[in-house]
Amino acid sequence: MTQKPATIQDVARQAEVSTATVSRALSNPNLVSEKTRELVAEAVRITGYRLNKAARNLRKQQAGAVLVLTPNLGNPFFSQILAGISARFADSEFSVLVADTSLPEQDGRRLVDYFLDSRIDGMISLDGGLSADQLAEFEQNGVADRIVFACEWVQDAPHPSVRSDNAFGARAVIRHLYDLGHRKIAHITGPKGNVLTRIRRETMLEERNRLGLPTREDWVIRGDFSLESGHAAAAKIAAMAERPTAVFCASDMVAIGLISGLREAGLSVPEDVSVVGFDDIEMAAFASPPLTTIRQDRRTLGTRAADRLLARLKGKPADACPQIELVDVELIARGSTAPPRDA
User: Fold this and answer.
1) Which domain does 17 fall in, by range?
2) Helix, strand or coil for residue 332?
3) Are 204 and 260 found together in one domain?
4) In this predicted model, what pLDDT tens digit does every residue of 272-287 receive, in sequence order?
5) How buried is 105 (Cβ within 10 angstroms: 0-12 exposed, 13-18 middle, 19+ buried)?
6) Residues 122 and 147: beta-carbon distance below 8 Å
7) Closest CA relative to residue 118, chosen from 59, 63, 54
8) Do 133 and 177 reside in the same domain of the chain?
9) Sign of the CA dihedral 330, 336, 339, 340?
10) What's the pLDDT tens digit per position in 287-307?
């Protein structure tokens, strides 16, 4: 005979409290004492009670889910950000859904409709490529206050964002290379139109100019955050009549691809060319040679973005937190950088 599932009444009897107290302990634990929370938690364990989130969310007129937009799930950079977001929502009433915006089926119209059809309660976007039309539609339909950007953002958009201090990171790279004795520093950018590409490139150029370093147009090479773009850039660098002695890459993936391509071209890192990345993804420390890079606290980017969205979903005012929150970055010096041969 199949055993009936435990009910909230079963939990209340086991804990010797009212059903209202059980409900408060499960949905708003801060409203009850620690002793009561422990009693209810133990009763839930003994009875095997499973909270029916769908029914509760229906009563609250909530979908019980948040959506995370990711530009490319295949890029290992996003793993720790997603882990941070998931960890924060694990003990909440909201499930986490993830959409890869690089896929053709995840077009802008579909994402807008998903939100406006009330299938999600809020959204964290790791993609700064959302269009002005999409953001305007969110605004017009009254859901703009439930959108948070993390890592990437849309310039001048009114939504809160949690981002790494990209400018500090770019300056730290140029300073590190300069202190090693490098004066011929190239840069492989991210994709055109990307906000991270812009700020890292602009800061790199400003710092290079401030230090009086030579500027050459062919020393700024277009990339797209991928291994392939770094590998392709290696052939261009190897063929230059006046070759840079160091390269600042807009991401670790680009840097690892570059190192591979330089090796194929007969150049050694760091003996012939020093290479610096940006992100400190897991494989950076295991590259050959280990990659000097800017460490982003990716998990913190995720947890703080989740905190922002949770606060809005719980009704806290938008001005309770700063509009822009910067997360510190750190230069991690490893084996891919060294003084130039002619230093």
Assistant:
1) 8-51
2) strand
3) yes
4) 999 999 999 999 999 9
5) exposed
6) yes
7) 63
8) no
9) negative
10) 999 999 999 999 999 999 999
